[in-house]
From TrEMBL, chain A:
PROSITE patterns to which the protein is assigned, alphabetical: ABC_TM2
Subcellular location: Cell membrane
GO molecular function: ABC-type transporter activity
Organism: Rhizobium giardinii
Domain spans labelled ABC transmembrane type-2: 130-368
Name this polypeptide is given: ABC-2 type transport system permease protein
Transmembrane segments: 173-199, 220-249, 255-279, 286-307, 347-365
PANTHER family hit by this protein: MEMBRANE COMPONENT OF ABC TRANSPORTER YHHJ-RELATED, MULTIDRUG ABC TRANSPORTER PERMEASE YBHR-RELATED
Family statement: Belongs to the ABC-2 integral membrane protein family.
Keywords: Cell membrane, Membrane, Transmembrane, Transmembrane helix, Transport
Domain of life the protein comes from: Bacteria
Bilayer disposition of the protein: Multi-pass membrane protein
Recorded GO CC terms: plasma membrane
Automatic annotation (TrEMBL), chain B:
Chain segments annotated as transmembrane: 31-49, 181-204, 231-255, 262-285, 291-312, 324-343, 349-369
Keyword Chloroplast in annotation: no
Listed InterPro entries: ABC-2_transporter_component, ABC2_TM, ABC2_TM_bact-type
Protein name per Swiss-Prot or TrEMBL: ABC-2 type transport system permease protein
GO cellular component: plasma membrane
From TrEMBL, chain C:
A Pfam family per the record: ABC_tran
UniProt KW Coiled coil keyword: no
InterPro entries to which the protein is assigned, alphabetical: AAA+_ATPase, ABC_transporter-like_ATP-bd, ABC_transporter-like_CS, P-loop_NTPase
Keyword set, alphabetical order: ATP-binding, Nucleotide-binding
Protein name as it appears in the record: ABC-2 type transport system ATP-binding protein
Ranges where the ABC transporter domain occurs: 11-241, 331-560
A GO MF label: ATP hydrolysis activity
Family, similarity comment: Belongs to the ABC transporter superfamily.
Length: 370, 377, 580
């Protein structure tokens, strides 16, 4: 009997989302945009930037440095400045991100074996990109230095740092981004679908219809929670397929672990969604509520920037963010082959969050029935 | 008629503005979007999001302990970018790296001292967690910097002559590379997008939903009066939200403000033209609050976030996406705002931004006016 | 007052056609005119095209073909000139809910260019006229339905219009406010203003000076209401003293030769005979008397549509008779009280409903009838008192009680995005039907209500009549012992309404118990007993005839249900004042 009722409710919930053009739009639009825009556009890599060179050296070494910078694939355009004024204007107006100033004694100093200075001016308004560009320029200058007479003499003693990039040998940004997206799409979809479901029924007046049926409150709750979780799992699966077959990510760990913890993650997410839903009277408020939760959740999860960079007093706040834990699991399973122990370690907080959000939602839901 | 058409028009306009202002003050969602959300965003970007990698946790493996390797290790430990834990065995750190407890392992191999003495190309290995490419890059750069520092000191000490080329870096406008200095001004642009586009599209769509638009239209009000009267209060509200954010940025987050207030308001006011235009266009096209909020989030908020150069370098994006960024108004506002704060008034840049934003705004307004002609259905 | 000057033609409609999308036209070649100094009723069920026609007259919408000219201007060419000279109150009154009464008036005064020096006088006049003086500082959203509507009217009248367009001013407003509004509007016509009053209530048509009757986008009738009712003159009978149960008698009569329409009117039946027939009223029994009755607009409309449905209900035929287990009432309310903060929405409401009885809750908006209704179907927990359905206490045994009740809400709240078949499937499932029995019941519903062709269509795209049938099907699928109907036929056409009541009447005869809330006086006549709820209390309880008899006076020897409603409420108000 209860199963008949519950099944009817679950089928109805799924149909309601899939047959409503708005509902379909939410299931297809944002996930697609997220996948395309984030994975291609949201990159902290630096490419195709313009650099300015003020070469006041007339000798051979200055020219050589210009050629080397010019030959680097990172830079799109090399602008040669005639005077410091131009450098200032170009940096001010953000025409270039960096300017290299080669002093008048550059070649002479190198030939004479005396140390020479090379000045790099960077745009601090884009400090992240500037730092990376500065790294590139330093490498180029270092390469040139090794070829100078002095460099050659001490070549044997100069220390080379050998980079080893574990898990992601070429530091492909998409390998970082796509697993993040898998976790955040489940958050986005789970939250919005759940948040809207009750608000929509309230707006259409069908909620009373449900309440006068023999469905018990806990059946309504389960019937409202399972469909968004199913939809969330569906999106996770789609994204995993895209990760493997479009973006070519390696899958080093166990999918079983990923899905296993994914269920707890989704449970905690729909719990929050239901909470928002029970609080809002209209779909409008539900959307704003979901948005209000989603933005901080994304920013304070380790997705945008590492949690350890945040101030010490803010870091504990991230402990209640389910995205934080699932991000580690998804990245771990894809790239690092993390083991059961680590997955369990991250899943326990998810269970706790789910237990709290679900019971809070159930409590609020019952209270709102008064 | 005792009154002239012009004074009628002014009176109608004033009435619309007054009505809208009352509503804005009384509607809780206005407060939410215009003041609460901005505060949350500003707070998140001021404190939560930080691209400054100060003190990244790394493991240092010293496979041999000699005066030479100890002095190199000291150079790593002295780096203000690293928090270093030391061990002889690299396996101790490997699991920490997998679980993300440290971001890199620096290895000084057992042969280091002999290689150095023999001039036999000594090496230092830098193992990083590639699942966080940005952090990985920084760890490598910082490790390289620390090694170079050490070499320079050593050469000076041993009187071996300074290195051939020494590099002097200067980060203009933000020498400490505090990411908050450019994130907070950028988030002000996002706040104005929320007020200008999301809020405006909601309030106009609400008029359609509640049927008050219909009642308005059946009065002698013209479509243009209706639109301008509708957005004028939100224009002021956008500037108010911006002012609040700027005050917080300067006095709470300590972001320097080197430009002029005139430039700040000129840029912000101009930005609101396309933002409000887009809001009007969305609401006129959807006439439904729910769809309007969805569209506003997807076509205004997300692009302002992702496609404006706020967090991600536009130059690094694929060409097609770079084209799209040209019609994102925030793309023009954000660098200008960052400049007003950090660099000062650079008018050629501002004027260019203002011109482009006005053009985009004009297009939005024309489209909105076309679809809000006094017709329904 | 010269006829020619006052009754100038204000609106001329010439072959006006308007379509939306591919559906059949919302207005199909409508022609007609609206005169000054008159109230013209724009009458028809929901979806007939009333709102579209009014919007065309404002110039906010243009016809696909044909032309609309208002006050001598064509809407296509000169909408601004029209908009400057008309007053328009759209369906939801066009008020800003978060602005106060005065702020709304100021806004519209500015928009309509009302000169400053005239304002004080105009506001004063309108506020007196609408009796809103005391509420100028209150937010419009906090006004009652009737007050909102008066404010909407005041806003539309700020600069005396020559033509006043009112789109369903009677919706969501109780009969008293509706009558007040009507009196106000009648005063306006004396000044030569032309008024268009659109309504789905056919009884409102009778009092209009002229009528445009629309049905499914077609103009069915244009002219004086008397001309319309004339077509059934002499064919309408009031049959009283029937032997046997009146509902069964009505069902049989409707299937008799020569009878095209019939409804219950308290203890009596109102019967319309077909053109040129002599009905014998055989089923009414020997003691029955059939007296000619004055025809009503609705009688004529049904006649024009080809008569009502027969009296047979296949739904009830398929229903097992519900034998009473004992004499216990099926629905019981004992001192039901609900407080929201310090506001008492329902105060000590008590009544019993016996098996096979139709019980009506009647009352103005906000009086507490919805609160009472909601407490009895378990949607609201009472602050005090108790409610029982089929013997189950709603506090302790809500789920068992719900298994015994069927619920049909206002506006047929179905899942709009689900098809008919999916809606049936869902409701069968939540009421625990499965397997063979589920298939049988769904099959039966499909057959009875003839959903076949539409089964796959999303229910929100269905015509109103079909939605109403689907809502009924979903409510009775599990053969409930009690039916809760909340404004079950508002806005539907009279044929669908009759069909609906044929089913309900027949189900009641099988022992189903019905609780209904309604605004609609015709519907109240179907009830065995009515409780009139006012200011949270039940101020009168009795059969429709009893209530009517209570208010008989010399001026009103034969009061209608609406007259009774108004008189009883006025009485109650007078008593409260005396007590105070």
């Amino acid at each position: 009997m209860w199963w008949t009722r519950l099944r009817a409710l679950i089928v109805k919930e799924l149909l309601a989302v899939l047959r409503d053009p708005k509902g379909r739009a939410i299931l297809i639009g944002p996930p697609l945009i997220q996948l395309l825009v984030f994975s291609y556009a949201a990159t902290l890599e630096v490419r195709n930037v313009d650099v300015m060179i003020l070469n006041r050296d007339s000798g051979h070494w200055g020219q050589k440095l210009v050629e080397r910078i010019d030959g680097s694939p990172t830079f799109r355009k090399i602008v040669i400045a005639a005077n410091p004024q131009q450098v200032r204007e170009a940096i001010d107006g953000q025409d270039v991100i960096a300017a290299v100033e080669i002093g008048p004694d550059f070649s002479r100093g190198i030939e004479a074996g005396t140390p020479v200075d090379l000045q790099i001016i960077l745009d601090g308004r884009r400090s992240n990109a500037s730092q990376i560009v500065s790294g590139y320029l330093t490498q180029i200058a270092g390469g040139l230095a090794a070829e100078t007479p002095a460099g050659k003499r001490s070549a044997g003693r100069s220390i080379s740092t050998i980079p080893r990039n574990w898990f992601n040998p070429n530091l492909t940004y998409q390998w970082f981004m796509v697993p993040n997206l898998i976790a955040s799409i489940a958050l986005l979809i789970g939250l919005i679908v759940t948040a809207l479901s009750i608000a929509r029924e309230r707006e259409l007046g069908t909620f009373d219809q449900l309440m006068v049926s023999p469905l018990r409150v806990h059946e309504i709750l389960i019937g409202k929670l399972l469909p968004p979780m199913m939809i969330g799992l569906f999106h996770i699966t789609l994204y995993i397929l895209a990760a493997l077959f479009i973006f070519g990510l390696p899958l080093r760990g166990s999918l079983f672990l990923l899905y296993g913890s994914g269920i707890f993650y989704l449970a905690s997410v729909v719990g929050i969604g239901l909470f928002i839903s029970a609080l809002s009277m209209t779909q409008q408020q539900a959307i704003l509520g979901a948005f209000l939760f989603m933005v901080p959740a994304m920013l304070l999860s380790g997705f945008a920037t590492p949690i350890e960079n945040m101030p010490d007093w803010l870091q504990p706040v991230t402990l209640v963010n389910p995205l934080r834990y699932f991000l580690i699991i998804v990245k771990g399973v894809f790239l690092k082959d993390i083991g059961l122990a680590e997955v369990v370690h991250q899943t326990i907080p998810l269970c706790l969050i789910a237990a709290v959000t679900l019971s809070a939602a159930a409590w609020l839901f019952r209270r709102r029935l008064e | 008629m005792s009154t002239s058409p012009t004074s009628d028009r002014i009176r109608r306009f004033a009435a619309l503005v007054r009505k809208e202002s009352y509503q804005a003050v009384r509607d809780p969602s206005t407060t939410l979007i215009a003041f609460v959300l901005p505060l949350i965003l500003l707070f998140l970007f001021g404190y939560g999001v930080s691209l400054d990698t100060t003190r990244t946790r790394v493991g240092l493996v010293m496979e041999e302990t000699t005066p030479l390797t100890q002095s190199l290790a000291a150079s790593f430990q002295a780096s203000r970018y690293f928090a270093v834990a030391t061990n002889r065995d690299r396996r101790v750190f490997e699991e920490d790296l997998v679980n993300g407890r440290i971001r890199g392992i620096l290895v000084i191999p057992a042969s280091f001292t002999t290689d150095y003495a023999a001039g036999n190309h000594p090496q230092v290995q830098v193992i990083v967690d590639g699942s966080e490419p940005n952090t990985a890059n920084f760890v490598q750069n910082y490790a390289q910097g620390a090694v170079a520092n050490w070499e320079r000191q050593r050469q000076a000490l041993m009187a071996e002559g300074a290195p051939a080329i020494s590099i002097e870096q200067r980060f203009w406008f933000n020498p400490e590379l505090t990411s908050r200095y450019f994130l907070v001004p950028g988030s002000i642009a996002i706040v104005m997008t929320l007020v200008g586009t999301l809020l405006t599209s909601l309030v106009v769509a609400r008029e359609w939903e509640r049927g008050t638009m219909e009642a308005m239209m059946a009065t002698p009000v013209t479509a243009v009066e209706l639109l301008i009267g509708k957005i004028f209060p939100y224009f002021l509200l956008g500037l108010a939200a911006m002012t609040l954010c700027v005050l917080l940025a300067v006095f709470l987050f300590g972001v320097p403000f080197r430009g002029s207030v005139v430039a700040l308001y000129a840029l912000s006011a101009t930005f609101l033209v396309p933002a409000l235009g887009q809001g009007l266009l969305i609401s006129a096209a959807t006439k439904n609050q729910f769809l309007a909020s969805q569209l506003a989030l997807i076509t205004a908020f997300l692009p302002a976030f992702l496609l404006s150069g706020f967090l991600f370098e536009i130059n690094s994006m694929p060409t097609v996406i770079q084209w799209i960024t040209f019609i994102v108004p925030a793309r023009y506002l954000i660098p200008s705002l960052q400049t007003v704060f950090l660099a000062g008034d650079i008018w050629p840049m501002f004027l260019h931004s203002i011109a482009v934003m006005l053009t985009i705004g004009a297009v939005f307004f024309l489209a909105a006016a076309r679809s809000t002609r006094k017709r329904i259905g | 007052m010269t006829e020619a000057a006052d009754r100038a033609e204000l609106v001329r409609l010439a072959d006006v056609t308007k379509r939306f999308g591919d559906a059949s036209p919302a207005l199909d070649a409508v022609s007609g005119s609206i005169l000054g100094g008159e109230i013209t009723g724009l009458v028809g069920p929901d979806g007939a095209g009333k709102t579209t026609l009014i919007r065309l007259m404002t110039g906010l919408m243009l016809p696909d073909s044909g032309s609309v000219s208002v006050l001598g201007f064509t809407t296509a060419r000169d909408p601004a000139a029209i908009q400057a000279a008309i007053g328009y109150m759209p369906q939801r009154f066009g008020l800003y809910e978060d602005l106060s009464v005065q702020e709304n008036l100021d806004l519209y005064a500015d928009l309509r260019g009302l000169p400053k020096h005239e304002r004080a006088a105009t506001f004063d006049e309108l506020l007196t006229f609408t009796d809103l003086k005391r509420f100028t500082g209150r937010l419009a959203g906090k006004l009652s339905g009737g007050m909102k509507q008066k404010l909407g009217l005041a806003c539309a009248l700020l600069k005396k219009p020559r033509l006043l367009l009112l789109d369903e001013p009677g919706v969501g407003v109780d009969p008293i406010s509706r009558r007040d509004l009507w009196t106000m509007v009648e005063d306006l016509t004396k000044e030569g203003i032309g008024v268009v009053w659109s309504t789905a209530y056919l009884d409102e048509a009778e009092v209009c000076d002229g009528v445009l009757l629309l049905n499914q986008g077609k103009l069915m009738f244009a002219g004086k209401p008397a001309d319309m009712t004339a077509r059934v003159e002499g064919r309408v009978f009031r049959v009283s003293g029937v032997s046997g149960r009146k509902r069964q008698v009505l069902a049989k009569l409707l299937d008799e030769e020569g009878i095209i329409d019939g409804v219950i009117q308290g203890e009596a039946l109102r019967i319309v005979a077909g053109q040129g027939t002599e009905p014998a009223f055989r089923s009414a029994g020997d003691g029955a008397k059939a007296a000619p009755a004055p025809p009503r607009f609705e009688d004529a409309f049904v006649d024009m549509l080809g008569g009502g449905p027969g009296g047979r209900s296949r739904l009830a035929e398929a229903q097992q008779p519900l034998a009473g287990k004992d004499d216990r009432p099926v629905i019981e309310a004992k001192g039901l009280t609900k407080r929201f903060g310090d506001f008492t929405a329902a105060d000590g409401i008590t009544f019993d409903i016996q098996r096979g009885e139709i019980f009506g809750l009647l009352g103005p908006n906000g009086a507490g009838k919805s609160t009472t209704f909601k407490m009895l179907c378990g949607l609201l927990k009472p602050t005090a008192g108790e409610g029982r359905v089929a013997g189950f206490d709603l506090r302790r045994d809500a789920a068992s009680a719900r298994n015994q009740l069927g619920y049909m809400a206002q506006k047929f709240s179905l899942y709009g995005d689900l098809s008919i078949a999916q809606n049936l499937d869902f409701f069968a499932g939540v009421y625990g039907l499965s397997g063979q029995r589920k298939r049988e019941r769904i099959h039966l519903m499909n057959e009875i209500f003839d959903f076949g062709r539409h089964a796959a269509q999303s229910s929100k795209d269905l015509p109103l009549g079909l939605k109403q049938r689907l809502a009924l099907a979903c409510a009775v699928m599990h053969e409930p012992r009690a039916l809760f109907l909340d404004e079950p036929t508002s806005g539907v056409d009279p044929i669908t309404r009759r069909e609906f009541w044929t089913h309900i009447n027949a189900l009641v005869e099988k022992g189903v118990t019905v609780l209904v809330t309604t605004h609609f006086m015709e519907e109240a006549e179907y009830c065995d007993r009515i409780s009139l709820i006012y200011r949270g209390r039940s101020i009168a309880l009795g059969s429709p005839d009893e209530l009517k008899t209570r208010v008989v006076t010399d001026d009103q020897p034969d009061p209608t249900m609406e007259d009774a409603f108004i008189a009883l409420i006025r009485q109650s108000e007078a008593e409260t004042r005396q007590a105070a």
